[in-house]
Write a structure and sequence with these properties.
Blueprint (H helix, E strand, L loop, with lengths): L5 H5 L3 H9 L6 H5 L1 H7 L15 H29 L6 H28 L6 H19 L1 H8 L10 H18 L11 H19 L7 H25 L4 H5 L8 H17 L3
């Protein structure tokens, strides 16, 4: 039961939407993916050009198919790492594709620049040289950059990437929302109310820790604050149900009876959380 923010939390937050779509917090991977080409341009290591024997389209297709295997594996590893760097699963596939595309394009372009820097301008046609550079960059990135592999295979805490403490708090927050989403409260079980109180407190404490690690004026801070407020609404609904079991209906029925202004506001927060957690 992965958390999915949806329009309720994304609408009006262009920075947050861009981050979740483009994977902006992961673009530090470009630095580590560019290391092989940069070092080769400085004379450390060597880039072996891919000599495509023929300009025929079928040959290029075969070369691209061969290069696509390490690209696909790298994309899967990047997706796995991005899953731990983001609280919610919105745009997960698109985000992984965009980050992989940017990383490989940067590696390919720098590979071409390194080849020009060391060997001079290409003798063959320009387009063929560009494709060669992109293919070599893709293959080199996948096998020869130890820093890049460390960045995408484990929570390494490298500079320009999310800190290990931030990643740990995200893991805790996801687990907390998963636990809340499975609470018996949603099935109107009075026995689950006391445990739900503890789960809400744990989730809010984790969000407070995340808030301390981001820009207080940024989109992520506003997201964590709004989730905290909606958890306050869920706690309010829990207390109402604790006082009178008939109050379950006010927050869980599809068409509740007429509510006060306060109850209506808290009901909206509970509904947003319920949708984000995928509670039916």
């Amino acid at each position: 039961m992965a958390l999915k923010l949806g329009k309720a939390y994304m609408t009006g937050e262009l920075g947050l939407s861009a981050d979740y779509t483009l994977g902006l917090r992961a673009w530090g991977l470009v630095l580590y993916g560019s290391m092989p080409a940069s070092l080769a341009a400085l004379g450390v290591g060597k880039l072996n050009p891919m000599n495509v024997p023929s300009p025929e389209p079928i040959v290029w297709v075969a070369a691209v198919m061969v290069a696509s295997i390490p690209v696909l594996v790298t994309m899967l590893l990047i997706q796995q790492r991005l899953n731990s760097w983001y609280l919610a699963c919105d745009h997960m596939i698109l985000r992984s594709f965009n980050v992989t595309f940017v990383v490989f394009m940067a590696a390919g372009l720098l590979t071409g620049a390194a080849q020009v820097f060391t060997d001079g301008p290409p003798d063959d046609e320009f387009v063929r040289a560009i494709v060669n550079a992109l293919l070599v960059g893709a293959l080199t990135l996948s096998v020869s950059s130890a820093l890049f592999l460390a960045a995408i295979k484990s929570d390494s805490g490298l500079p320009l990437l999310p800190a290990q403490s931030f990643t740990r708090d995200l893991d805790e927050a996801r687990d907390a929302f998963y636990t809340i989403g499975r609470s018996g409260y949603w099935r109107r079980d009075p026995a689950a109310l006391d445990q739900l109180e503890s789960d809400i407190e744990h989730a809010q404490a984790t969000l407070a820790s995340l808030l301390r690690q981001v820009d207080p004026d940024g989109a992520r801070a506003r997201l964590y604050e709004r989730l905290t407020q909606d958890l306050d609404s869920l706690e309010y609904a829990r207390r109402q149900a604790k006082a009178a079991q008939t109050r379950f209906a006010d927050y869980l029925d599809p068409a509740p009876p007429a509510l006060s202004e306060t109850d209506t506001r808290h009901r909206s927060g509970v509904d947003r959380l319920r949708a984000a957690m995928g509670v039916s």
